[in-house]
Amino acid sequence: MRMMAILLGSAAFVYYVTGLKGRFTKRKRIYFAMGTYILVYLITMTLVFLSGNL
Fold it and tell me: Quick check: 14 and 36 in contact, CB under 8 A?
C-alpha cells in the first residue's frame, strides 16, 4: 500500500509541476506522469532485488 502511495504521489507531483507554466498539453503531462510512475517502479524493484543477501 505504501508503495502505491509513493508511485501515485510521484506521478501526481510530476503532473502538477509540468502544468505550472502551461507549456505542455494535458496529454503530454499524462505521458510524463506515466513515465515517472514506470521509472520509479523500475528503480524501486531493481533496488529491492539487488539489495538481497548475496
Answer: yes
For residue 13, give the C-alpha cell.
507531483
Across 2-38, b (16+ Cβ under 10 Å) vs e yields: eeeeebeebbeebbeebeeeeeeeeeebeebbeebbe
Residues recorded for the chain: 54
6-49 residue pLDDT tens: 999 999 999 999 999 999 999 999 999 999 999 999 999 999 89
- Which residue, chain included where needed, has cell 507531483? 13
Could you please report the per-residue DSSP string of 9-20?
A: HHHHHHHHHHTS
